[in-house]
Write a structure and sequence with these properties.
By secondary structure, the protein is an alpha/beta fold. The protein is globular and about 55 Å long. Helix 4 (about 50-60) links the parallel strand 2 (about 45) and strand 3. It has helices spanning about 1-15, 25-30, 35-40, 50-60, 130-140; strands spanning about 15-20, 45, 65-70, 95, 115-120, 145-150, 170-175, 180, 195-200, 200.
């Protein structure tokens, strides 16, 4: 009886949480989650690398997903198409490489509160700032946490240009690999309680306090 209860608890944990770190991901998904009913119960999914086909399966079947971390730690450089991410409409926490296809699909996630835009071998010839600004503007009343990697920036970042002061729910901001210029207006909302700089350089740090 005890073994049966333990198996049930482990099965329940698998049904709500899954972490996939390495390659041959489509085969692994088919082994772990052979039944789409299990996919539909997933709440949290962390992926190190995945094919586009497997990602589409996740979007199509994981309608109750609340946290999706697409890390691609293997550095495969795959350009993921996320236009179907709106099917996971319950997503609250999202980590993505910035250079995904159709990144503005993020704007359709009405419940999104925590967003991480990760560096992923970005071409410095591409200006990603309009995309970042469009996402921030669309989610300005919902974002509570934003993590931003500025490795791709070719010029110092004036933080006020991100228009974070309009993000009225923002409490946590984490910046990494950014060369910060002087802000020409208050860059953060009064709601912001925590700000983190990692491997950043700045001329006048007091203007961010």
């Amino acid at each position: 009886m005890a073994d049966k209860l333990s198996a049930q608890r482990n099965d329940s944990r698998l049904r709500t949480q899954c972490r996939i770190l390495h390659s041959k991901q489509t085969d692994l998904l088919s082994q772990l989650l052979p039944n789409t009913q299990v996919l539909r119960k997933l709440r949290s999914l962390s992926i190190g690398s995945i094919s586009q086909a497997a990602l589409e399966e996740i979007f199509a079947n994981c309608s109750q997903l609340e946290s999706l971390l697409l890390c691609d730690r293997t550095g495969s450089g795959v350009l993921y198409d996320i236009r179907s991410i709106g099917l996971c409409w319950m997503l609250k926490v999202l980590l993505l490489p910035l250079n995904v296809g159709t990144p503005l699909a993020i704007c359709s996630l009405v419940n999104l509160t925590h967003l991480t835009l990760q560096r992923q071998k970005l071409s410095q010839e591409t200006d990603w700032m309009p995309t970042v600004l469009a996402i921030i503007h669309a989610k300005r009343f919902n974002l509570q946490g934003l993590s931003f990697d500025g490795s791709w920036l070719i010029a110092p970042l004036n933080l006020s240009h991100l228009q974070l002061a309009q993000c009225t729910a923002l409490t946590d901001l984490r910046l990494s690999n950014c060369k910060l210029g002087e802000a020409d207006s208050p860059p953060l909302p009064f709601s912001c309680q925590r700000i983190s700089f990692r491997r950043c350089t700045m001329g006048k740090p007091l203007c961010y306090i």
